Amino acid sequence: MLMVIYKTIEYFRDKIKEEITKKGTVKVKPTIYDVAKKAGVSIATVSKVINQTGRISEKTIKKVNEVMMELDYQPSSVAAALTGKKTYTIGVLVPDISNPFFAEVARAFENSARAAGYTLFLCSTDHQTAREHEYIDLLFKKQVDGIIIATELNDTKLVKKIVKHDVPLVLFSVDHPSISTHVVTIDNVRGGYIAGTYLIEKGHQSVTIMTEKDRKSSEGRLAGFKQALTEANLSLENQSIISCYSTVEDSRRASKQLLSLPNRPTAVFACTDLIGVSLINEARKQGLSIPGDLSVIGFDNTIYADIAEPGLTTIEQPISQMATSTFEQLLKSMKKEEHAKQRVTIIPELVERASVKKL
C-alpha cells in the first residue's frame, strides 16, 4: 500500500516538474524523494543518513551524501522539529548587539556553532522584558536544541521556564543564586581588584569608577576596585561614582558629568571599554591630554580598546575562550552527558596599553 502511494506521489511530482520545466518559470527545490530516487535507496535510508541513525554501510552513506550535494538538497529543520528530532539550531540572547563586547561574543559563538555543525538564532533584547519573553517563546517554537543566555534577564522566571521545557541551557557572563544551571563567567571581583591595584601602583591616589547600570557584573567590579583601595588605605567617595548604561549616548553624558566634578580624579576605572573610550573622547574634546591630564583603564579588551587613541589599557575578558567553554557545556547538556551543574569562572588579565600615566 505504501509503495502504491509513493509511486503515485512520484508520478504526479514528475508531471508537475515536467510542466514547470517547459514553462521555465519556477525551480522546484529537491526533496527527500528526489535524493532517494537518484541514490537508488529508500526514503527511510536517506532519513537515517541525515539523522545519523540506524546501521547503514559507509558506501551507502557516501552515495547519499554525494547525491544531496549534487542536488543541493537541504533537510528541513521545521520537519525535524515536528518529528522531535534535532534541528541543529541554538538560540542566543544578548542585551545589545551594537555593544562591541556582545558583537564579538556573537561572532565567537557563531564560530563555535559552525565548527560543531549548528546554526545560531541571535536575539538582541535591548534590556526589554517584553522582548525577552517574545524571543524565548520564539525559540521554543523553533524547537532549538539549546539556549545560551548572555544577558542579565529582567525576569529570571524565564530561566525556570526554559528548564521546565527541558531545553539545555548555559548562562554566559551572567549568574544568579536562584538559578541552577551551567554558568561560564569572568571573575569580576578580581578584575576590579586588578584595575584598582594597577592604578595605585602607578601612583594614583585620587581615583574613581564609572559603573554600568543594572549589571551584576559591574557590582562585582566595583567591589573588587573598592577592596584594592581599602588595602592601600584609600577611600572611594560615593558621590564620585558615576553610573551609566554601556551605550554611546549615555556614556557620553556620564563622561561629561565626571569631567565636571569639582575635584576631578587623576585616574578612572571604566567598567566597560565602551564607557572608557567615550570618556577618552569627551576628555580630549575638552582639551585634556590622555594620559597626561587623566588616566583611564577599561574592562573587556574589545576592538574599541585596541583602536582607541591612545590605546586603552584594560582588563581582558577572553571572549574566544569563554565562548568555547560555553559551547562545550551546552553540547554536553544536549548530548545528556553532564552530571552536576558546573560554574566555570575565568580569571581576567591586565592588557597594558598607553592610557594610564605613572605619577
Describe the structure.
Helix 13 links the parallel strand 9 and strand 10. The N terminus is likely disordered. This protein is of the alpha/beta class. The protein is elongated, with a radius of gyration of 27 Å. The chain is built from 14 helices and twelve strands. Keywords: DNA-binding, Transcription, Transcription regulation. It comes from Priestia aryabhattai. This is DNA-binding LacI/PurR family transcriptional regulator. Pfam families: LacI, Peripla_BP_3.
Labels describing this entry:
six-stranded mixed sheet, Rossmann fold, 48% helix, alpha/beta, 14 helices, 359 residues, 2 domains, single chain, six-stranded parallel sheet, disordered N terminus
